[in-house]
Amino acid sequence: MQHSDVKEIAIVSPVAHGQSKDSAKWDVVNGMKVAVAFVNTDIEQARKKVLGVTDVSCFERYGVKGPQASQWLASRGITIPVNPNTWTYCDQKTLVLRLGSSEFLIEDQLDGSACNKLASDTARVAGVYKVPRADAAFILSGNEVLNLFSELCSLDLREKSLGDKDVVMTQVAGISATVLRQTIGNEPVYRVWCDGTYGSYLWEVLTEIAVELGGGAVGIAKY
Amino acid sequence: MPLRLLKFALAKDHPAPRFFKSHETPKKSYDVVIIGGGGHGLAAAYYLAKDHGITNVAVLEKGYIGGGNTGRNTTIVRSNYLTPEGVNFYDASVKIYEGLSEELDLNLFYSTRGHFTLAHTESAMRTMRWRAEVNKHVGVESRVVGPDEIAKACPQLDLSCSGQAPILGALFHAPGSVARHDGVAWGYARGADRLGAEIYQNTEVLGIDVKNGKVCGVKTNKGYIETKQVLSAVAGFTPRITEMVDLETPIVIHPLQACVTEPVKPFLDTILVSGSLHVYVSQSSRGELVMGSSLDPYEVHQTRSTLDFVEGLTSHMLDMFPFLSNIKVVRQWGGMADMTPDFAPIMGKTPIEGFYLDAGWGTWGFKATPISGKTMAETIANDSAPDLIHSFRLSRFEDYELTGEKGAASVGH
Amino acid sequence: MKLLTCPMNGIRPLSEFIFGGEYRVAPNQDTCTDAEWAAFVHNRSGAPGDKKEWWYHTPSGTWFIAERNTLTDKVSRTYLHGTNNNVVPAQEEEGK
Fold it and tell me: CA of B315: how far to CAs of B259, B296, B311, in Å?
């Protein structure tokens, strides 16, 4: 049992329920208990190349909306994507997604720290509303990833129709999700966010198809 | 029947027996004009003649009789409703149905199967208990049963529903039945015709003449007809008719779809309904599974059918009956349901003198065919609605006295 | 209709949308009669024809207006309601 290693009470990843069957190795990242590895590192490396599914719900996130939201973010040094439904990097460590015209999702990658800074600013400003985020988040990697999407999503997510700065909000496996393409360490990957309550469902669907296509679950330690 | 067969065998020519006379053009005037030659309109014509001696009646049907929602429903007859008003009304209908084959001298294949409304959640169980108590109070046979009794009645049913929505119990309604729906229209048509009413197919109403708040005539594609009394019994076309007389109603049209499978060996004796899985199913005497689902989710005045509907319905059917995965759906169709906000019909008089409404039949009209015909005939004959349909009057909306039947709609919510 | 154009997200399958009913303007509560108010609460323009309707794109949470013929099920145009948004066509305000 890994529980004895956990010193503080940590939030459990919204995906964890769907992973309990797997003999995952657990650890606490950003205050959230999350599967860091599933099998030995060579097998996971091979899965990652074909079709890897990784739970990254533990990344820090901050949501904000309102007519003054973009000015407010800009005044705090956040790089704002110009057009709705696009995203950009802020300091190479933080994703900034513009959801519609006046709503934003900011997500720190493992080494980012923008979200905690934004969250510590509790002063109320007119026209700026915090959006509590409780996402399940995934990284999908490998050369079979488009075959997976062709089973789950009615949109064409190939490079020629999904630009590298586009954000799409659509349905994946019948539930609302946000999707974009990103490059992590020279590898092209897809990112998927959905409401946390659907986390374990989506994990089960994604990994089931991933296994069929020769891939499988990959721990967050690989990123 | 055998005698009639013998007569045919010995006859030199074989004239097809007609159910009702075909008339060339309508007369100049009628005492009553009924718009809509479905079950409801034809039943009203029949009871106007039989109960009230009013026979100078024309039934105008823009297509062919029984070709609308009468021939598009899933033929279920039941009275396990939620409000005492509803239960009384539908129970009166079931009682007429039980003797209707004899009365109309036509085999309607009325088959009492027992009707299970499956509950998959505690809140659904609560509604079932509520309905059972109201039904019992009014004298209608309904009771709440557990999974064991459901399994006994239908051993093929997967009580866990693939683990997605395990069945906790059901409302069992013993009088629940199915009937041959087009037969109901044809039987009433023949009965009305024999008593003197005239039926006109391919006859479309183009306008209704109203002067000083009173109906005085109907314009049709076969000429003008003078009349002081008009009954609209057109289900999904109701808003088009009420628009002709500038009458506002709460009715909105949504398509309702259904489908049947190829015939299979009989295995399903009962009628099953699942609100959570949006399915109702029975097996016809030919062996086909007759299946329906919830309303299409947006307003459209069409009878088109969609792939989304069959996909959704069949996936839920497989939750209940996994062994049906190789059975083919052979036919699907749609009807236009005239929905009301409280899931109860709109029946009776209107602010326009001589204009009567039999509408708002949404997804629940077939089972009410006999009693709505009877009560609308009474309403027209006396120019006053009987107590049985008082709660269904159009003015209940401006009085904020709705008759909430949503909890008893099979899967409409 | 199998596809619908969301003004913010483009052409999407109908399964991504929820129908929100007809766009309606309420009578003034302070001056209308009880009968007018009851009619507004309950009655609908049920006859088929060109209608202005609310639709909702579920994945993005976008409410918008679609002009649709309820007989043919053809959508003539879709746009965002109101002026709080920078992509609203200018001719949109007449229903307010």
Answer: 13, 17, 6
Nearest to A171 among C15, C61, C62 (CB): C15
C-contacting residues of A 4-63, CB under 8 Å? none
CA distance linking residue B284 with residue B224, whole number of Å: 43
Same domain, yes or no: B213 and B237: yes
**Lowest-confidence region among B130-144, B272-286, B381-395, C74-88:** C74-88
The count of domains in chain C is: 1
Residue B162 lies in domain: 112-177+252-339
Are B240 and B258 members of one domain?
Answer: no
Q: φ and ψ at B253, to 5 degrees?
A: -95, 120
Q: Is B210 domain-assigned? A: yes
Instruction: Please tell me whether residues B319 and B227 are part of one structural domain.
Output: no
Whole-prediction pTM: 0.90
Give the helix/strand (H/E) hosting C22: strand C17-22
Residue-wise pLDDT for A144-161, tens only, equals 999 999 999 999 999 999
Residue B399: CB atoms within 10 A of its CB come to 9
Type of residue at C69? N
Give the residue extent of every domain in chain A.
Answer: 3-59+133-222, 61-131
Range of the domain at C30: 3-89
Of C9, C15, C85, the CB nearest to A85: C9
Q: Are B138 and B90 in contact (CB under 8 A)?
A: no
Which residues on A lie below 8 Å from C13 (Cβ)?
Answer: 154, 171
Residue B86 maps to a domain: no
Q: Judge whether B81 lies within some domain.
A: no
Q: Is residue B157 in some structural domain? A: yes
Structural domain contains residue C95: no
Alpha helix (H) residue ranges in C1-96: 34-42
Q: Which DSSP letter does residue B237 get? A: G
Residue A191: its pLDDT value, please? 98
Total count of residues recorded for chain A: 223
For residue C95, the model assigns a pLDDT of: 37
User: Is residue B130 scored above 90 in pLDDT?
Assistant: yes
- Beta-carbon contacts of A203 under 8 Å, excluding residues fewer than 6 positions away, are A15, A18, A19, A53, A55, A136, A138
Q: How many CB atoms lie within 10 A of CB C78?
A: 18
Interface check for A127 against chain C (CB to CB < 8 A): the answer is no
What fold, for A3-59+133-222? Gyrase A; domain 2 (3.30.1360)
Q: Residue A80's Cα: distance from chain center in Å?
A: 19
Quick check: C86 contacting A, CB < 8 Å? yes
Nearest to B397 among C15, C42, C51 (CB): C42
Tokens of B147: 């999974």
CA dist., res. A173 & res. A170, Å (int)? 10
Total number of domains in chain B: 2
Kindly indicate whether the ipTM for this predicted assembly is greater than 0.95, answering yes or no: no
**Which DSSP letter does residue B15 get?**
P
Nearest CA of chain C to the CA of A80: how many Å? 17
Residues of C with Cβ-Cβ distance to B251 under 8 angstroms: 44, 46
Task: Answer yes or no: do C38 and B400 touch at CB < 8 A.
Answer: yes
Domain boundary among B339, B373, B394: B339
The pLDDT score that the predictor gives to residue A5 is 55
pLDDT band per the 50, 70, 90 thresholds, residue A8: low
